[in-house]
Amino acid sequence: xxxxxxxxxxxxxxxxxxxxxxxxxxxxxxxxxxxxxxxxxxxxxxxxxxxxxxxxxxxxxxxxxxxxxxxxxxxxxxxxxxxxxxxxxxxxxxxxxxxxxxxxxxxxxxxxxxxxxxxxxxxxxxxxxxxxxxxxxxxxxxxxxxxxxxxxxxxxxxxxxxxxxxxxxxxxxxxxxxxxxxxxxxxxxxxxxxxxxxxxxxxxxxxxxxxxxxxxxxxxxxxxxxxxxxxxxxxxxxxxxxxxxxxxxxxxxxxxxxxxxxxxxxxxxxxxxxxxxxxxxxxxxxxxxxxxxxxxxxxxxxxxxxxxxxxxxxxxxxxxxxxxxxxxxxxxxxxxxxxxxxxxxxxxxxxxxxxxxxxx
Length: 360
Description:
This protein is mostly helical. It is built from 13 helices and 2 strands, in the order ααααααββααααααα. It has a domain at 2-73 and 187-351.
C-alpha cells in the first residue's frame, strides 16, 4: 500500500516539479546574465497568480489562455523596474545615477515629501488604493527621470544594492496588490476533468500546467541556441567584455534578460494556480521564493535549463519525502518535508557547489 502511494505521489511530484522548474528559470536567467539575486521572486509569482484570477473571474478566460498576457505583463514590469532602478546599478556602459551632491539629495528629499503630501491629499478624495496607485506611478516616473537625467555613474554599485532593490520592489508589489484586492485569500474553480492512471488521479489542469512548463522550457532552449538574439545573450553570460568587442549591445541584453526573467516568473504564477487555485493572496510568494533558491542550487544557479531539471528533482524529493514522513507517528510531514529540502540544499552546497547539473 505504501509503495503504491509513494509511486502515485512521485508521479504527482514530477508533474508539479515541471512547474517548479519553470518558476525558477527566470531567477536563474537573471542571475546568469546580470549576477543579480532576485530576492523579490515570490512577489512576481504572486502577480501572475492574480493575473490568472482576474482574467478568469472578470473575462472568463481560462488560465492556460492567460499565459501570453502574463508573459507580456511580466516583461513590461521587468523593463520598467530595470530602467527605473536596476540599470543605474549594473549597466556596463557607465550611464546611470551619478554620485549625488548635497543639492541633489535636497531635491530628492523635497520631491519625496511632495509626493507624500500629494498622496495624503488624494486619499481625502479617492479610495486609499487609488491614491496608492497614483503614488507608486509617480515614484516609477521619478525613477525614470532620475535615470534619464542622472549623468554618469562613478563606480559600480555593491551587490547589496541590487539585493535591496529587488527586495524593495517585492515589498512594493505585495503592498500594492494588497491595497487593490485586500489581504483576503481568493481562488477560482476551473475543473475540466481528471485522468486516472491507476496509481493516482491527475486533473487535466495539472497536466496542462506541466505541458505548458515543458513547452516554454523547450521554446526558451531553442531561442537560446537557434536564434541570433539568444546567442547574443549567451555571449554576454560567457564574457560581457568580449561580447561588447564583438558588437553585441550588452546594455540591451541586460535589459532583455531582466525583462524576460521577470516575464517567465509572472507566467509561472499563472501555471501554479492551476495546481493550487485557492489561497491566492498578496503574500503567497514567500514559500515559492525559498523553494526557488533550493531548485536553483540543485540545477546550478546560473543555468535556466539546470533550474528546470532541478525543479523536477525537487518535486520528486518534496512529494516522495512527504509520503515517507507521513508514516512516522507523531511527526508533522509537511514541516519535515521543508526541513529535508533545505538539508538536501546544504549537502549539495558542500559536495557540489556549482549544482548537480552544472559543470565547474
